Amino acid sequence: MALTNLLGLTQSQMVDFVQEALGEKAFRARQIFKWIHQYGVDNFDDMTNLAKPLRARLAEVAEIRAPEIVFQGDSKDGTRKWVLKVDGGSAVEAVYIPDGKRGTLCVSSQVGCSLDCSFCSTGKQGFNKNLTPAEIIGQVWIAAKSYGLPVLDTAERRVTNVVMMGMGEPLLNYEPVVDSMRTMLDDDGYGISKRRVTLSTSGVVPALDRLGTEIDVSLAISLHAPNNELRNVLVPINKKYNIDTLFQATQRYLDALPDNRSLTFEYTMLDGVNDQLEHAQQLVKLIRRTGIRCKVNLIPFNPFPGTDYTTSPRPVIEAFQRRLVNANIITTVRTTRGDDIDAACGQLVGSVMDKTRRSERYIKLQQVQ
């Protein structure tokens, strides 16, 4: 009989498991849930407020199993990257970025990605598999344990923000991603504020509409171009859900939130491609026309082997930023972090196990000696 991996269960799912599989009362679910996520326990014998017979029964039917850490590397700027082996033999990457009292964890949702955005190294490896809830929340669990537990001790907490911006398109792995975010938000889990859990999407409109009815988290849109002609090249899903369709969906998402929140448009700066002042002016007109509440995050392109793109020069990025700021659009420039360990935005690749099982196709498995 296959063991149930409790790491991937939400608290409500844990209640169902405890009642149906163990015949125990619901309050036991909360105890187990807190042991896993607040104290990083993966051995039932360590759950000391559970009776020994219950701990023995748990060991017979369940497990607490995170992805296997095959590499951990630290950047000179404090960024930490994990390469994690998941079921099937493939690997994904997670990145922790410290910034004063704030610590942001970038989490992957898929092995590879099917959207093939032309400037993203993950997309170049193709799609291999969706991550399970345990493989997604396991990245948070590993990072929290890496920096000290219990995670709800605010004096010790290091993971204050989580962004679903790692490998994959989160909305194409909908249920596992949403379940994982529920555990991130749960006060008995990681207790992270809804404003500090961010989902980034390239624009899977039907799933975005569904998201707005099921969970309240912050939203980032991978825009990267101010017009459909250019976005069709950079972000091919635009051919199915164009900019107008995407903006209408994002407005519906914002309208459903209980507060006056804005979203973030991510815009990777590619030299000579989307970084000219005419592009900045088109972006200004687009935002003004739609009236959407937003800020823009300009992301210097991070090169990877085989790409034809180069990074926009700093003066070009600053001129682009000024044009938006002068139009009263809040615009930031993302600081490149972790590029010495290939942990910067757009550089996450990992490795992929060929689905036919005939061979392994290693795209890149970064290791710092």
Main attributes?
369 residues, alpha/beta, DNA polymerase, domain 1, TIM Barrel, 2 domains, ten-stranded mixed β-sheet, two-stranded parallel ribbon, disordered C terminus
By secondary-structure content and strand pairing, the structural class works out as alpha/beta
Proportion of helical residues = 25-40%
Q: Which architecture of the largest domain per CATH? A: Alpha-Beta Barrel
Shape descriptor: elongated
Spell out the helices and strands N to C.
EHHHEEEEEEEHEHEHEHHEHEHEEE
> What is the average of the pLDDT values?
89
The count of domains is: 2
Query: Could you give me the name of the CATH homologous superfamily of the largest domain?
Result: Aldolase class I
What is the count of helical runs?
A: 10
CATH uppermost class of the largest domain: Alpha Beta
Could you give a short account of the major beta sheet? Answer: 10 strands, mixed
Distance between the termini: 41 Å
Radius of gyration: 21 Å
Low-confidence stretches: 343-348, 351-369
